Amino acid sequence: MALYLITGASRGLGLELARQLGSLPASEVSKVFATARGDAPILEELAKKSSGRVIVVRLDVTNEASIKQAAVEVEANLDGKGLDILINNAGILQYALGVSTMDNLTESFTTNVLGVHWVTRAFIPLLRKGSLKKVVNISSTIGSIATSRFVHLLPAPAYKITKAALNSLTVQYALDYEKEGFTIFALSPGWLRTDLGGETADLSVEQGGKASLEKIFNTGKEQNGQFIKIEIKGWPNDGRNQYDGSPAPW
Fold first, then answer.
1. Which segments cross the bilayer (predicted)?
2. 140 is known as an active-site residue
3. Looking at 4, 66, 133, 159, which residue is catalytic?
């Protein structure tokens, strides 16, 4: 009966994770706290049909006061229990032609890196009370420094830089909290057909959500601090996007 919190659940992968988790038996998933920074009609409709198992929480990852208030609200709905799994999914992708034209690094960094830091810090006390103590930071292989030449032409330098920074943040948290029994890792959910990923992406959001949850369910302390790819069985290993479930290169 695990208790989950997902940031950025108003659309895309976050919404799909909330939907799939909410469809699982209550014996496996007790409650899903699905956060959104503003109005989220699709998420609200999902919550109404969930018999109280999906709870919408207002949370803006760029606003520390909003995060702290969300933590208070979540704690009030835990009935004295702890939070088991935090999925830091909220993020933005902004386009620029190159580093010299990149005027959006501050905004991207605030959302993609500081937002994850602030949210994780605020919910660590509730995670300490949980049985799984798991934090999953949704990253991207686009942020891999080792493969940066391959994705150089993608006009999103701020996204690449901030995902690389997120990976480093993940490792620092993993090392700091491993003695307390935490499992903290970065997960690349693949190139998905969402508003962020576009219509020509490799995978449907349903595929990405299912494969991501398989990793979230099955990843244990031996993967603490790792950067992991999802696994799509039968996906061709052609040297481009690989979904083989292995650790991604830093």
1. none
2. yes
3. 159
Distance CA 184, CA 222 (A): 10
Question: Does the global pTM surpass 0.90?
Answer: yes
CB 1, CB 26: distance < 8 Å: yes
Q: Domain spans of the chain?
A: 2-229
Burial letters 202-241, b for 16+ CB under 10 A, else e: bbebebbbbbbbebbeebeeebbbbbbbbbbeebeeeeeb
Per-residue pLDDT tens digits for 12-51: 999 999 999 999 999 999 999 999 999 999 999 999 999 9
Kindly state which CATH superfamily the domain 2-229 is placed in. NAD(P)-binding Rossmann-like Domain (3.40.50.720)
- Summarize the chain as % helix, strand, coil (round to 5): 40, 15, 40
Out of 140, 144, 188, 212, the active site residue is: 140
